[in-house]
Amino acid sequence: MLEQHRIRGRRASEIAADVEQAVAAGRLAPGSPLPPLRRLATELGVNPNTAAAAYRLLRDRGVIETGGRRGTRVLPRPTHTPRDQPRFDVPDGVRDLTDGNPDPALLPPLADALAFAAGEQLRDPVLYGHPTMDPGLLAVARREFTADGLPGESTAVASGALDAIERVLQTRLRPGDLVAVEDPGWGSLHDLLPALGLRMTGVGVDDDGPSPQDVAQAVAAGAAALVITSRAQNPTGATVGAARAAELRAVLADRPDVLLVEDDFGHVIADTPYHPVCAADGRPIVRHWTVVRSVTKLLGPDMRLAVLTGDADTVDRLRGRQRLGTGWVSHVLQRAAARLLEDASVDRARVAAHYTERRRALIRALAAEGVPALGRSGFNVWIPVRDEASAVVALLQRGWAVAPGAPFRLRSGPGLRLTVTGLAPAEVPALAADLAAVFRGDPERGRLT
């Protein structure tokens, strides 16, 4: 069975706790197989239903995955090892292109907006029983949702995009449900789903977003929800264009019970238009849907705020559950964000143009070197490679720290993610030359990938 750890316990809670402790202590490594239910029940002298209940607890807590004939295994990345933690310390003198952050030079100063919000709190204190959404932020959100052709049935606010997505999924799904996600895609979402006890299936991504064929296969296989990125997809920079949105709507029109979540965090930093998948001509394609828009890429990661719109039932459920937990998102934060979003000095077009210039400069330089790369919008450029580990090491030796693709992938091919938000134009030629050398396996410049 398991040479490194012998599972113990008589009750389901005891068995689950024993496995969790072994995983946390490293006695059960990620990917380790667990015994079949009946075998475990026999070894522990318990009813098979008790062993099954223990495995359900572990799956719901994001510790194990159950894969039918493939058996039951500890997740490759259990929930206590988040993907967004640094993989290695970047040595002094090495250019760091790993972090996925906006350029600090483009973030607006917060002092005036926070002072305004504090003044509003003195004038109109937010107390228990106050509406959960600031009227100013609500007006901004509804105006922008309406301009993009969204029905705008209901609106809510959450503490960032991931918080919003988590709350939406919890309103409609149960542990064990299958969720279709982009592959490669947002590693934090890939971590969240097993932590909620949900299963994942990947859909391929190209420059235009999720593959309609893969989405069709996923929903045919029983996916209860689909989560897609509208613009500035992490890590590939994909953007859903008009034609791709129409193709995806056609797939979902035959599956109206699928929950659709569109993460449009790139609305504040992308120079590409938004094309809704959830609706056509102002009418929803599926019964339950949401569009989530975060402000953190424009205003800074510590401005933990996202607005969302969706069908009335889903948003009402989300707000009801929110009231039982955190209650609401701070109105000081909401008012400050609304003030900044209305501030003419916060020039979204200039910010988007800055990031577009950085991406395109690198992609052009790589194309001249014969290196394919993706990056239609957003912060990142994605470069397919044969061997991530050797490519990362070879580039580190050349003075560049890049992110390996593994944290973003389920079954898609290997690649590298480069965050180009702070990349200076003068750095691009040297970076492109070093990437090309590594890509080609030039012994004078890098290692074989």
Task: Please explain how this structure is put together.
It is built from 15 helices and 18 strands. It is an alpha/beta fold. The chain has an 8-stranded mixed sheet, sandwiched between helices. Strands 1-3-2 form a 3-stranded antiparallel sheet. A 3-stranded antiparallel sheet has the order 15-18-17, with helices on one face. Helix 1 crosses helix 3 (48-60). It starts with 11 loop residues before the first helix and ends in a 9-residue tail after the last helix. The model is unreliable at 442-449 (pLDDT under 50).
Instruction: Give the overall shape, derived from the CA principal axes.
Output: globular
Strand content: 15-25%
Physical arrangement of strands within the biggest beta sheet: 5-14-13-10-9-6-7-8
Query: Major beta sheet, specifics?
Result: 8 strands, mixed
Uncertain spans:
442-449
The beta-strand count equals 18
Q: How far from one another are the termini? A: 37 Å
Structural class: alpha/beta
Radius of gyration: 23 Å
Tally of DSSP helical segments: 15
Q: Average pLDDT across residues? A: 90
What's the helical proportion of residues? 25-40%
